[in-house]
From TrEMBL:
Region called Disordered, residue ranges: 62-81, 160-183, 303-329, 642-682
GO molecular function, one term: transmembrane transporter activity
PANTHER family in the record: LOW AFFINITY AMMONIUM TRANSPORTER (PTHR42718:SF1), MAJOR FACILITATOR SUPERFAMILY MULTIDRUG TRANSPORTER MFSC (PTHR42718)
UniProt protein name: WGS project CABT00000000 data, contig 2.70
Subcellular location: Membrane
SUPFAM superfamilies tied to this protein: MFS general substrate transporter (SSF103473)
Comp. bias intervals (Basic and acidic residues): 313-323, 661-682
Composition-biased stretches (Low complexity): 651-660
Family matches, as Gene3D superfamilies: MFS general substrate transporter like domains (1.20.1250.20)
Transmembrane segments annotated in the record for this chain: 248-270, 276-299, 362-386, 398-419, 439-457, 464-483, 495-516, 528-547, 592-619
Keywords: Membrane, Transmembrane, Transmembrane helix
């Protein structure tokens, strides 16, 4: 096949390039040039057979050399490097890594969507037991992400001043060495997820009716995503150079979250209704087992990727400079022990209180022990750790703002998800499958907001403003649910809330990662994504615990007011029982719980608004300072020109030749001074 007179608009590379005499096997390279202008060098290279020598000679020099047609785009030196994979391999590679995020959220909804089926199976009387199924999973995901991701934490490329974004930046002080030397260990990262998740249905059969054991297995299940997610982020960052490909890869990774939540809810509900809820976990374990094999072949070998990876320094004199690494990398075992212990104890106390009450002695004791353990963690990180898990000594004061915003927003989101399903299934009487379809629009809007984030960042929109918008979505989504009447149509408040909440999710995570990276030392900026992911997942579990305490107190108060009989061990009837009085009591209790989410969302809006004002004021002061320096520099130049004019004027009394030369210099000096004054006024 021959394609003649095919103009390819090469973006910033200037006028259209007339490429002729294409062969059919070169179509993929043509599409590459269209999508990625950096492939122009490959198309024009002497080794490329994309065109004949005669046609190559006809290309204007300005286009071929990218010098005069248009100003060259300032990109890092590694922008034009290849990943060592063809287009299909790159797509499959990104898809496999995105499945880490996809399966993480799908596993989260395995116990959210079919909650009433689980309640009937376990004969549950209390909403607190149901919330433990999700809280245990989020607790371990949030707790173990940071220490699990420590070997992969990455720092910005020292040779690339434009590498501002943190996640997956090229150079490591402490790279994931085993993963680099044995790339098939990268595939085993997904295998760990499948192995841990397969423990749930296998071990669950040993104690078929024990709530504590099931919640424990859910906690073990959460360790899998904690191991996989930070490593998947790091692998994406190491593989793709800074540019459009990397942005698209991270956008797909972010879009996989709400998509996985929607698909996981639908499949879990379908399987639980038609087969058994046990098969939800069996199918997920089999999916992870298949993913192990796919990852084994898709993730490149070091000989294929290491020499071309963007973490390598630019070539100098034909040799490649290896990135600087720590020859003796160490892991902060004491910090990991104290940090993980503190986070688990605090979270356990918050989620156990709705079941046994705050008056039970071990609940406040565990809470105090958790706080003391976190205090010990801070002491270890500041005073003893040579390679701290969290670089507290280098954190700027703005980091507290970012972490508070993320915690309040995502804890509000966890409350919104859990109680929205209770509202639709238990109070409106919808089936698990119907409820999952009602919440499925989050997949579409999640993809939209993920790529909208990339667009806004490329357009230069303030990151703090994006964070404020996401907090407003968190607040508005919860407010719509709490104000929804029981018998209102789905297309009113519920549908709008479902459309808005993915915007909060996919706008907040990248914005928080960028903001937090700017508060970290330059060689530690790569850990921003892991730190944000820790706060995101941990806050979901904490939010469920806080709302659960309020929910139980409101249920007891409303039940006593309505005359509902209760006992000490069971303050409310079984969840399977229902009548008008119970529905009214449960609706009042649910609204009080969701009001906690509204309050957390409002707090996030206030903090994010204050943070945006602070950043705006600082940016304005910085602009004024730059203008002032420019004016001062301009005044200095003008004074220098005046001194030159005085000197030239003093020399006009010399000889005729000298006088003529000095007068010419005076005229030129006056012209230069006049031109400088015009430019200053402009």
């Amino acid at each position: 096949m021959q394609l003649r007179n095919l103009p390819l608009q090469l973006g910033d590379y200037g006028p259209a390039l007339m490429l002729r005499w294409y062969k059919s096997d070169n179509v993929s390279l043509v599409l590459k040039v269209i999508l990625w202008p950096s492939e122009l060098d490959t198309a024009l290279s002497p080794e490329s057979d994309i065109m004949s020598t005669t046609d190559r000679d006809k290309i204007p020099a300005s286009v071929a050399q990218n010098k005069t047609a248009s100003p060259p785009v300032k990109v890092p030196p590694q922008q034009g490097k290849h990943t060592g994979m063809n287009s299909i391999h790159e797509v499959v590679f990104v898809a496999v890594l995105c499945l880490a995020q996809f399966l993480s959220l799908a596993a989260m909804n395995q116990t959210v969507a079919p909650m009433l089926i689980l309640a009937k199976y376990f004969d549950i009387h209390d909403y607190g037991n149901l919330s433990w199924f999700s809280a245990a999973y989020s607790m371990t995901v949030g707790t173990f992400i940071l220490p699990a991701g420590k070997p992969t934490l990455q720092a910005p490329c020292q040779t690339c001043p434009t590498s501002r974004f943190t996640t997956g930046t090229p150079t490591d002080r402490q790279p994931h060495r085993k993963t680099r030397r044995h790339p098939r260990a990268q595939a085993r990262l997904h295998g760990r997820l499948g192995l841990v998740q397969s423990l749930v249905p296998r071990l669950r059969l040993l104690w078929p009716s024990h709530l504590i054991w099931f919640s424990t297995c859910r906690a073990f299940q959460g360790i899998g995503p904690a191991l996989v997610i930070p490593n998947a982020i790091a692998i994406i960052g190491r593989t793709f150079p800074i540019g459009l490909k990397r942005n698209i890869a991270f956008a797909c990774f972010g879009a996989a979250g709400p998509t996985g939540a929607a698909v996981g809810a639908i499949l879990a509900s379908l399987v639980a209704e038609k087969l058994s809820w046990h098969w939800c976990f069996w199918f997920l374990a089999m999916t992870c087992a298949v993913l192990v094999g796919v990852s084994w072949f898709v993730i490149p070998q070091p000989s294929e990727s290491a020499s071309r990876s963007p973490d390598a320094s630019p070539e100098r004199d034909g040799s490649k400079i290896e990135p600087e690494t720590d020859p003796n990398p160490t892991f902060d075992h004491l910090g990991a022990l104290t940090g993980v212990t503190g986070l688990i104890l605090i979270n356990f106390a918050l989620n156990q209180a709705p079941l046994v009450g705050w008056s039970t002695p071990y609940v406040p004791v565990l809470l105090v022990l958790g706080i003391l353990s976190l205090a010990a963690f801070v002491w270890v990180e500041l005073c003893f750790a040579s390679q701290p898990i969290v670089p507290l000594r280098g954190l700027q004061r703005h980091a507290a703002f970012v972490l508070v915003i993320v915690f309040t927003g995502w804890s509000s989101h966890g409350i919104w998800v859990y109680y929205l399903y209770i509202f639709l299934e238990h109070l409106r009487g919808h089936s698990a499958l119907l409820t999952s379809f009602e919440t499925s629009p989050v997949a579409v809007t999640g993809i939209f907001f993920a790529f909208l984030t990339v667009y806004l960042l490329r357009r230069g929109v303030s990151v703090s403003l994006i964070m404020l918008i996401s907090c407003f979505f968190f607040f508005l989504g919860s407010l719509l649910v709490v104000l929804t009447p029981l018998h209102q149509t789905y297309r009113a408040n519920t549908f709008v809330a479902v459309l808005l909440m993915p915007g909060a999710m996919n706008l907040s995570f990248p914005a928080a990662t960028i903001l937090l990276s700017e508060t970290l030392p330059r060689d530690k900026q790569g850990m921003a994504a892991s730190l944000v992911a820790t706060v995101v997942n941990y806050s979901i579990s904490c939010g469920l615990g806080l709302a659960g305490s309020v929910h139980k107190a409101a249920l007891i108060k409303a039940g006593d007011k309505a005359g509902v009989e209760r006992t000490r061990s069971s303050p409310m009837p079984k969840l399977s029982e229902s009548n008008e009085v119970l529905v009214g009591v449960r609706l009042e209790g649910l609204r009080m719980a969701v009001w906690v989410g509204v309050g957390l969302g409002a707090l996030g809006v206030v903090v994010a608004g204050g943070f945006w004002v602070v950043m705006w004021v600082q940016a304005r002061k910085a602009r004024k300072g730059r203008k002032k320096r420019e004016v001062e520099e301009g005044d200095g130049v003008m004074e220098l020109e005046r001194n030159k004019l005085r000197k030239f004027s003093a020399g006009t009394t010399t000889t005729t030749t000298g006088t003529t030369r000095s007068e010419d210099e005076v005229v030129e000096g006056e012209k230069g001074l006049h031109h400088h004054e015009e430019m200053k006024s402009v």
